[in-house]
Acetylornithine deacetylase/Succinyl-diaminopimelate desuccinylase
Amino acid sequence: MDDEVPAPLCHAAARAVDEATLVDALAALTAQPSPYGRERATAHRVADWATGRWPELPWRVDPLERTATTPDSANLVGGSDLGDRPELLIYSHLDTSLTGGTDFDAPITGRHSPAPALELSGPAREVVSGFGLSVARAAAAAALVGYAAAAETLRAAGRPHRLTLLLAATGTHRDDPTAGPEDGVAPAPTTGGVLHHLRGRPRPAAAIVAKTSPPGILTAEPGAMFLRVRLSSGFHPALFRDTATPPGGLLAHLGVVVEALEEFRRAHLARRADPDALVGAELGLGAVRAGQPGKPDLLPGVVDLHLYLTTVPGDDPTQITDALRATLTRRLRDTPLADCGLAVAGHPAHPAAATPPTAPICRHADAAWLAAYGRPPAPLRGWTGSTDGVVLRARGVPTVRLGPPALPPDAADPRRDRYALSELLRFARLYADIALRHQQASTG
């Protein structure tokens, strides 16, 4: 086959991946917080380390535009090319869903202690654990080391290639609760790290998304949208709660709204149930905002409920928003909330997207998986996680997503993600193998 790589190249790339380098990459990625919109310091730290480790490979920090939500954002980019060959992009991201700071994290995690540091444990120090490894530092470290192994192997052999590593800023889905109109569909989110990288450049021939994944290869991912439900009433002091509208205030009837949202979720998912579909829908209520903590003697006149929804092919965000509004209007009609204001806003982030399984990058990934595990990847169905893979596919880039499986989190502190070092090494070599097969197929 045209993607079978000569054995000497395979062996050289595999030898170039070692445990010490992988652990050092993890240390550079986890040395400091890297929250959404403030990734530049981590980008510089990792670039400095990578330059010292692989001085023959170019590394650059590419700042993003400064905005209110991305005041200090930057991508880390590595590139290696020799001759004119189709580009393979290996992508992961620098930011983490949680920030490492208690102001943002504690309302989600319930913990006010410092984020757990990187640690090796087990009888043979075979388990690595720490904060933010699942999103996405573990996979990012494997991608970085695998990219460098492939790049230095190809350069040493004088083989034509074009490989790019992108550790992107703002790679996790995040909504701005203040953006957009009071009703209807809000404008598209600001440009993220992947869009910033693609702007004004020829699109890559193929891409790998390196992120913790189910045990297989994802060729399709759902889209994502944000929903906001707003209830409003008049201004009422707490001592006059019985004469408020609704009686007791908005928060006293929050359970009615949550039950209505759960009814909508059940119906929404039932209409999209398909055991053969590659992707699935999901809906979660992730935040409720109301009142002023310093003035609880004043009942809130506005309650906002923020939801996250993954979309499947054919979903129309406007129709989903309208359907949710209709469900809430019907469910609240005969309740004390009937006389309150109701507004529902939908904010689409990305539509669902898929790569044809016949695309060369899918064949290369399947072959590399078989070589790594000794068996083909298991078919994956109903996946409900969305990443920037949908951004790449929407721009015509054939994309696969695969990444190292996580061990169960630390029971004493669920913020401490855990991975077997052997799996991280396996995936670093797997990413390098896919890169070599892409190069081989493009040169013959």
The longest strand covers residues 223-232.
